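Human: We require from you a standard protein entry with sequence in single-letter code and fold as tokens, and nothing else.

Assistant:
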Amino acid sequence: MSDLVAKYGEARLPRYTSYPTAPAFSAAVGPAEYAKGLAIAAESGPASLYLHVPFCRSMCWYCGCHTTITRQDAPVLEYLDTMNQEIEIVSFAAGNSLRVKNVHFGGGTPTIMKPEEFTALMRKLRSAFRFEDDPSLAVEIDPRTLSPLMIEALGENGVDRVSLGVQSFDPVVQRAINRIQTFEQTQAAVAGLRACGASSINFDLIYGLPHQTVESCVATVRLATELRPERFAVFGYAHVPAFKKHQRLIDESALPDARQRNEQAEAIAQQLVAAGYVRIGLDHFALPDDQLSIACRSGSLRRNFQGYTTDECDTLIGLGASAIGRLPSGYYQNHVSIGRYAEMVSSGVLPTAKGYLLTDEDKLRARVIEGLMCDFEVDLPKLCEQAGYEVRFLLEGNERLQELVIDGVATIVDGRVTVSQNARFMVRAVAAAFDAYFGSLGRTHSKAA
């Protein structure tokens, strides 16, 4: 196993929350193409909304998100005004008939909004779109800045799912990543959210951080499981200082190597399983009666930009700077620059910067990759027959897959590709074997292990 970790663990691979991945997006796909896709989006069933709020009060040095640090409220208010305008533009382009089943607020720190601002934004969404009965509303939260009034506002507006950033409770690691967060702060946030109706709570944990050890990872999990969140998402730190300059503040000499990262990931997984959580896909864990566990058992687990999900909607509308949407026709991403995003919206134009229009081949490969990422196996003959392709189209000349089979990472029996039980942490390497664009886009991804 150590040889496999050495061979594949240092490889930079996509997380495959979409296919093709974002580096394949092109500026040739812009507002006009997005408008055409929105015009027919309502015909594909209810949609999910993702609202990106790219502001934080302080910078966590490990962060890989698009966010801006502000101590003032004015930039946030201006941004929310722009987002309200974008909501109107998107709703009009979709014929004012788009049905909404799920809403997810991500960031940044969405709860940087004041309670009344969050309520006003929810009111705007409900007036612009046709919400389904009993929609699911999710918000990402920084426990360090969450106020009791904001907790009340979340409950009053029907938020039932929340995700709390924890990362690590080790004070040494916290100082090294510029994120000091006590267990008591997290505990208070959980208690308040439970009291106001949050029925599903997720904790984000990270391994591979500076000065992190197997022992500190296990200690963090033991503390975290005392609060009994329904879910955990466990991610490997992606050190890409060339793209995220603030990561240069992290001491690279204190970062664990591929073997140590794998040991930390497995130690976290073992501790969570021992605490009664079900291991789901590459990096998620959930209690047995959680909807994520049920979806995993039934084979209906999905994967999108938020990770593993039970969201079955084929349409995802991205709102806000840098947000990515997915329609049956393809992917569409807004401008990353808040200034350029606001400029286009104020002109009454969809703020699409780039995108990708899916081909039939892309859709087939996307289903293969999603199947591997969710279930660790995929029935190629079945998927190819449904898409009108021969199985040999995916297998013949696939040298990457052949090498993985030789190394024991995967097996192929009657066209069914299965990731070996002891090599599941390398599932992204198997998925990459079906990625027609891998290695040709010049983009640095996170390590495979």
Q: What stands out?
A: The two ends are 12 Å apart (CA to CA). DSSP finds 16 helices and 21 strands in the chain.
